[in-house]
Amino acid sequence: MEEFYVWQGVKLTMPEVNSFKEIFLLALLNVALPTVDVYSDLALATKLYYNGHPKWASSLLVPFLVNYTLCWIAWFTTEKQKKFSWIAALLGCYPQLVAARIICLFWTQPLKGMKEKKHLERNLMENEIFTEAVPSALIMIIIVLVSNEGGPGFGSQQDMVMGDLGLFLVTFSTSVLSAGLGLAKCLKVGPCHVLAEGGCLGGFLAPRFLLIFAACLLSLLGKGFALASPFDWNIPAVWGAHFLGVSAWQWNRSEKDF
């Protein structure tokens, strides 16, 4: 009897599963991206501690520790082969280990790989999205805004971004990308999905998914601006002053004099 897997109400047989596409998506979105995201967050937090910004470093470290704790819980409750897999949990990359196993399954048992992939996306990878990627992205948006040079109190914060610009850009881009992509994926593979799973490159290049992805990115940026407003209540004025070639400090002073 031929083995099959029910996907979107359609029975798929082994030849109908595109193993190469699934392996590529798993390696890119479930191994490479979260690994770079997690470890770059930790590296940036360490750098901020070293540069004398313990509050900002701690704010980045908290999401990392929450995700790290959930990683251990997921390992303890779901892992059946605990003899050596605890090393991955110790290094904070247990979901990536599960994704690597599923990649191997797609070479030998594609239908079983499809089932395991669904479990991975719904029960393991979403932890990193909501507990680390989204909070880290919001915190780094705030850091970019408050470190904007433009008057008393801001110059000392410049090294948070400019101290190691390459590291900050990698950390910021991977966190924002992981957060936006993860939020959009929840509407595609989550328990209350509203998007179909088929399409070009697994549906990730479908127009509706790209539109939702863009909306999630803009929503993150908007929330970051809102959260940064208590640190500098006149952010639009600061930016406007730069566009006009006038320093933010002079701009705010002129408003007070008026």
Protein architecture, described:
By secondary structure, the chain is mostly helical. It has one domain. The protein has 11 helices and 2 strands. It has helices at residues 19-50, 54-78, 82-90, 94-108, 110-123, 125-146, 159-162, 165-189, 207-228, 235-244, 248-257, and strands spanning 4-7, 10-13. Strand 1 (4-7) and strand 2 form a beta hairpin. The longest helix is centred in the first third of the chain and has 32 residues, at 19-50. The radius of gyration is 22 Å and the shape is globular. The N and C termini lie far apart (84 Å).
- Sheet with the most strands? 2 strands, antiparallel
Structural class category = mainly alpha
| Beta-strand content bin | under 5%
Rounded to an integer in angstroms, the radius of gyration calculated over CA atoms is: 22 Å
The strand line-up of the biggest sheet is: 1-2
What is the chain-wise order of helices and strands?
EEHHHHHHHHHHH
